[in-house]
Specification:
The protein is α+β, with helices and mostly antiparallel strands and 157 residues long. The protein folds into two domains: 76 residues, Beta-Lactamase; 65 residues, no CATH class. The protein contains three helices and five strands. A three-stranded antiparallel β-sheet has the order 1-2-3, sandwiched between helices. Strands 4-5 form a two-stranded antiparallel ribbon. A hairpin with a 2-residue loop joins strand 2 and strand 3. Helix 2 runs antiparallel to helix 3. The longest helix is centred in the middle third of the chain and has 45 residues.
């Protein structure tokens, strides 16, 4: 798992003055001599690891570790906020899509048109090659309204 894997697992910073003497080190760059890794944690969730490497032995000190820890805290908050913003945008897009689909379906009172529109809009919204909608005509669900389809074998069927 290497140094960054250890930091992720233990959620603790790790400063290595000589990577050749640390059994956790996995060589990525043959010129690396020292490494400093800081966990990116936000609200007790590990988001990643901030890692810096140097060709100089013992290149990092306590001041560097403190500075990178502060940066890691800010970076973790920024990453978490970006993820949250992405989720909010996705939810808003889903809501907008549902509103549009529902609006299109409500324009008709003819069952076949409603079913075809539903199948077509669901196919588009889900990125599906094909969508089918069937409804039951009786409580026993033994017979169904002629199904409506949209997609691969024809726009509306």
């Amino acid at each position: 798992t290497g140094i960054t894997g250890w930091v992720a697992a233990h959620r603790q910073p790790l400063r290595v003055d000589d990577v050749s003497q640390d059994p956790r080190y996995i060589e990525v760059s043959p010129n690396t001599r020292s490494e400093l890794a800081i966990p990116l944690v936000y609200r007790n969730e590990l988001l990643g690891v901030l890692n810096v490497e140097s060709e100089q032995p013992a290149a990092y000190d306590e001041h560097d570790e403190e500075m990178l820890s502060t940066l890691a805290g800010s970076l973790a908050a920024i990453i978490a906020n970006a993820r949250l913003l992405k989720q909010v945008r996705q939810q808003a897009e889903r809501g907008r899509m549902l509103y549009e689909i529902t609006s299109r379906i409500r324009r008709s009172t003819d069952m076949q048109t409603i079913l075809r529109t539903t199948a077509r809009e669901l196919s588009k919204a889900a990125g599906a090659r094909r969508a089918h909608v069937r409804i039951s005509l009786s409580e026993e669900a033994t017979s169904t309204e002629a199904p409506a389809s949209a997609g691969e074998t024809g726009e509306d069927a």
